[in-house]
Amino acid sequence: MAQARVVKSSVQHNGEAWIGNKKNALGAMDSMKVFKTTWGWMGVATTSRGVATVVLPKRSRRAVEKELSHTAGPPNSEARRHLQMAQAALLRYLAGDSQALGLALDLPDSSSFRLKVWRTLQTIPYGRVRSYGWVARKLGQPRAARAVGAACGANPLPLVVPCHRVVAGDGSLGGFSGGLPVKKRLLRLEGILPSHPPTPGAPGRAPSR
To answer: Are the CB atoms for 39 and 94 separated by under 8 Å?
Structure first.
C-alpha cells in the first residue's frame, strides 16, 4: 500500500507564518509560530508544558521555517497560551523593554549533563556574563569547559536559556549558535558590551571565571 505523503506548508494568518502539515496547519497555529521582530524573523514552538524551541532572529521567514524544530506538542489551549506569552515576552526583551522573560519551559530529553548546564545558564542574571569554566565548576566538573560549550551550542531555547551570557575565560566571545554578530548585539542590548567600539587599550568587563 502506498504511503500518504505529508506536505509541509506555511500558512499566512494576520501577517504571520504558522507552520504545520497541510492538512492541519490551522491547528498547528496553537503550538508553532514564525513572527517578525525589529531584529528579523523568529520562530517559537510550544507544548502544553511550556516553550520547547526558540529560533533566533534571521533575515527571512523561510530561513526560520527551515530551522524551526518540530517539537511542538498537540494543539491545545495551554500550548496556545504559552505561545502567546513567549511571543510577547521575546518582543519586549528584544525591544529593551524587559529584562526577565519569565516563561515556562519544556526542555527536551537530553543527557543529564546538558540539562544541568541549561539549568545553570538560567541562573546567570541579565547584564552579566560567566565563563564556560565558571559553569563547569558550578557543576563540580572543572575540566568540562569544552563540554559546557557544546551544551550551549545544543541549547534549543536561546534567549530563554541565556547561553549568550557565556563567554571565554579571557573575555572573548567564544561561540554562539546564532552567530557572533547576534551574540554581540544581545550583549550590547544588556549593557555588557559598549554600544560603540571602545577606545583602544580601554578595559572591558571581564567575565566571572
So the answer is: yes
So where are the chain's domains? 8-94, 112-189
Q: What is the pLDDT of residues 73-91, one digit of tens each?
A: 677 889 999 999 999 999 9
φ, ψ at 29 (rounded to 5°): -55, -25
Q: How far apart are CA 97 and CA 187, in angstroms?
A: 15
CB–CB of 76/29 below 8 Å?
no
- pLDDT score for 109: 82
- Give me the catalytic one of 56, 86, 163, 186: 163
The correct answer on CATH 3.40.50.150 for the domain covering 112-189 is no
152 tagged catalytic: no
Looking at the chain, the number of H-run helices and the number of E-run strands are 7, 7
pTM of the model: 0.79
Per-residue pLDDT of 22-39, as tens digits, reads 333 334 446 889 999 999
Looking at residue 164, the DSSP 8-state letter turns out to be G
Distance between first and last Cα of the chain = 60
* Neighbour count for residue 34 (Cβ, 10 Å): 23
What are the grid coordinates assigned to 2, written together?
502506498
